[in-house]
Amino acid sequence: MKPIEMENVQNWLDAFTNKQVYIHVETTNGAYASHFDDKAYNVGAYVRNVQITFQQAKIVGDGNAHRVGLKTDNGWIYAEGLTDWVIHEESKLLLAGHDREGKLMVALQISETPFDY
Fold first, then answer.
1. What are 24's strand-pairing partners?
2. Given this model, what pLDDT does residue 8 score?
3. How confident is the model over 19-55, as pLDDT tens digits?
4. What sign does the dihedral 16-69-50-48 (CA atoms) show?
């Protein structure tokens, strides 16, 4: 993965607009957060291979961390804290946010085909 390039990511988001796509959204502070800090809570969310169609997509950010929002008929899906991106298998947009140690904090992935398990 490489640091987010807003213009390139926006172009990919635009390419998926008004198409039925599969998304993967994941957030985590680490499954064992409470093992390292007894006052910490383990938190996370995981959604995979949900089909949606979005009419608008936007990336915003300050150069360090970015937010991507996808506007659907019924509301918004967004991921915040994204730092890196890559195109996988020539057609899957993978966005991720990593902490200072390189650990995954958030992921947003978009594809016209389902993601493998």
1. 48, 109
2. 96
3. 999 999 999 876 555 555 666 677 789 999 999 999 9
4. positive
Residue type, 9: V
Name, in order, each residue with C-beta under 8 angstroms of 100's C-beta and a sequence gap of 6 or more: none
- In whole angstroms, what is the distance from residue 84 CA to residue 101 CA? 14
Higher pLDDT, 100 or 79: 79
At 44 the pLDDT is 85
What strands, in cross-sheet order, belong to the sheet with 92-98?
A: 2-3, 84-88, 92-98, 104-111, 20-28, 44-61, 66-72, 75-82
Residues 93/13, Cβ–Cβ less than 8 Å: yes
Angstrom distance (rounded) from CA 105 to CA 89: 23
DSSP of 29-49: S-TTHHHH-TT----EEEEEE
Q: 């961390």: which residue's tokens?
A: 65
